[in-house]
Design brief:
Layout lengths: L2 E14 L4 E2 L2 E2 L4 E4 L6 H13 L5 H4 L12 H14 L2 E11 L9 H12 L4 E6 L5 H4 L3 E12 L2
Parallel strand pairs: 5-6
Antiparallel strand pairs: 1-4, 1-7, 2-3, 5-7
The structure holds magnesium ion.
The site of magnesium ion (MG) has 5 residues, from strand 1 and helix 1.
Length: 158
């Protein structure tokens, strides 16, 4: 069986008055991401993990943040486009695991909604989303930014 593992990581700066999207879900928050797109750090990490598993480069290569067509774009669209790239190589998603690192707000009440949002875009039920603070340490702990890690397993269809 031809299986590939991929890893992705992303960071965005947080600023007051911006929207906070995670996994395609808008989270009520006084701060949100500074970004060219909607700044969905979790989806960006998952896109990089998918591209990495298929050895297709990274999200910046496929969707440059200097390209006006991606200004303000919903990252769920970027995830759909990334899935198309993976499928063109005859891969399907076996499972995804991910961790969002954010000090505030607490995300526990939104995890199920984020998981089902990602599951429907990825056409895969095995999507795990976890969240952690960083115990007030570093840029996440100081509430200056948000980061996300993702790992995926792909299987090549015969
Ligand atoms: Mg990003």
């Amino acid at each position: 069986m031809d299986m590939r593992i991929g890893y992705g990581y992303d960071v965005h700066k947080l600023e007051a008055g911006k929207e906070l999207f995670l996994g395609g879900v808008e989270i009520p928050s006084p701060v949100g991401c500074v970004a060219h797109s909607d700044g969905d750090v979790l989806i960006h990490a998952i896109c990089d993990a998918l591209l990495g598993a298929a050895n297709l480069g990274d999200i910046g290569h496929h969707f440059p943040d200097t390209d006006p067509q991606y200004k303000g774009i919903r990252s769920t669209i970027l995830l759909e486009k990334t899935l198309d790239l993976i499928k063109a190589e005859h891969f399907e998603v076996v499972n995804v695991d991910s961790t969002i690192c954010l000090q505030k707000p607490r995300l526990s009440g939104f995890i199920d909604e984020i998981k089902s949002s990602l599951s429907s875009v990825l056409q895969c039920n095995a999507v795990s989303v976890k969240a952690t603070t960083t115990e007030k340490l570093g840029f996440v702990g100081e509430e200056k930014g948000i980061s996300a890690h993702a790992i995926v397993l792909l299987q090549k269809r015969n």
